[in-house]
Amino acid sequence: MEKHGLILGLLMGSARILRCNPFNRGGVDPVPDKFTLLRNPHPEEDEDEIIVRKFHSH
After folding, report:
1. Which residue in 37, 35, 31 sits closest to 50, CA to CA?
2. Whether 10 contacts 35, CB under 8 Å
3. Number of Cβ atoms within 10 Å of the Cβ of 14
4. What is the rounded CA–CA span in Å between residue 2 and residue 45?
5. CA dist., res. 19 & res. 26, Å (int)
6. For FRET with 57, which of 19, 48, 50, 51 sits at 20 to 30 Å CA-CA?
7. Which one-letter DSSP state was computed for residue 39?
8. Contact, 42 vs 22, CB < 8 A?
9. 47: which residues sit within 8 A by CB, 6+ positions away?
10. What is the pLDDT along the chain (58 residues), one digit of tens a residue?
11. Using CA atoms, how far apart are residues 27 and 32, in angstroms rounded to an integer?
């Protein structure tokens, strides 16, 4: 919601929750810069950046 606002954030969050099922591959799925209801095409490319940000935010 910080990145895309209330309405788009709720839509993206709802789509993400609906993807939580045994038929989805799972893994890292960071919030994309552009609005989309689909999963990031290559989330593993962002995985290292997410880990670094997590440790630098403390």
Report:
1. 31
2. no
3. 11
4. 22
5. 8
6. 19
7. P
8. no
9. 28
10. 888 899 999 999 998 888 888 887 777 777 888 888 887 766 555 555 665 566 666 5
11. 15
